[in-house]
Amino acid sequence: MNFDRINEKLSILADAAKYDVSCSSSGSKRQNTKNGLGNGHYSGICHSFTEDGRCVSLLKILLTNHCIYDCAFCVSRKSNDIKRAAFTVQEVVDLTINFYKRNYIEGLFLSSGIFKNADFTMERLLLIAKKLRLEENYNGYIHLKTIPGASPELLREAGLYADRMSINLEMPTEKGLKLVAPEKSHDDVKKPLGFINQQMTEFNTERKLIKSTPIFVPAGQSTQMVIGATPENDMEIMHTANQYYNDYNLKRVYYSGFIPINHNDTMLPSIGTQPPLLRENRLYQTDWLMRFYQFNVNEILNVNNPHLDTDIDPKLSYALRNLHLYPIDINTADYHLILRIPGIGVGSAKKIIQARKFGNIYAYQLKKFGIAYNRARYFMKCADDNYHIKDYLPSQIKNKILSTSKSKYLKNIPNQLNLFD
Prior knowledge:
By secondary structure, the protein is α/β, with parallel strands linked by helices. It has helices spanning about 5-15, 90-100, 120-135, 150-160, 175-180, 185-210, 235-250, 275-290, 295-300, 315-320, 335-340, 345-355, 365-370, 375, 395-405, and strands spanning about 50, 55, 60, 105-110, 140-145, 165, 220-225, 250-255, 330, 380. Helix 2 crosses helix 3 and helix 7 packs across helix 8.
């Protein structure tokens, strides 16, 4: 093996992969087998950070950065004058096993540019996963990117070896996608998402009858949208996410703040423009409210409120716009309503429901539950503290909260760390 050449490929193809953030290693149920290597059920070792600060826990590489497409937002676009490289199937297999044995990684995230055609590329991604599972007896985590346009037969077989599969939506709307990637369409994403979702349902149904039925994409599917490259507002972004959650039973939708990488595209933000990380964070908070706090997307973003606030989180913003629904009595309200109190999370809400079985809850108890009391007190009432919300305007409450809050948002972007030193 030519180690210098392998290191050069790693440098090129790991760097190109950092723009894809949909690489979570959570959710798999694939456990180790006798004499096997690795366990996809557990994960969490982190060895690198992306350019904008996100943590990476996997060997995250492209099979190749050659691509037949010329998407304006992509560093691997065919018209870019960059150094190109491609791994062989066996090189990726060897790297994964060697890195895993040295405890560098917990699993593999494998994507690729498209060279030749979709099936040619997808076939090689599949072959890597098969070799790891069947020849190396590797049971660790594998995340494969679905190649748009690949045949259903290849996708079905890939789902038997991958823990998670994902395919990037790229831009939140079809109109936005056509601006930067006229060769692509959202239909190219919907078809494989729908097929994989159907297969997951069929395999799960069959397993209820036949226990030996193999697992199929046990960690589910995900997708990613690039934020800030095209002019969609927050409402359009989150309504698209909501549609894909509902239609394809996605595990996650990722929101990636656009990082300018090309000098010659006047339609995109210029080189040196900071990625919209605060906006990205607000979108993730909204996503969380939809998935875990039982909010409907229309309650947070609608035609009257199409943009998320940058200075306060979306849950607090909702509460300030709907003061007529507050205060909420934590001693009588159901779990769903308690979740709507700013400063109270899922864990704290469950503690409240359990604790009030033994009597009324007082303010000193709430503080011990770990809630953000200085925020929550404006929107709730307990046994000994009933804040007179009617005496204040939303702007006054907002200013009071902001005056006692410190932002956790990092304004400085940390440098990229090298996974391979």
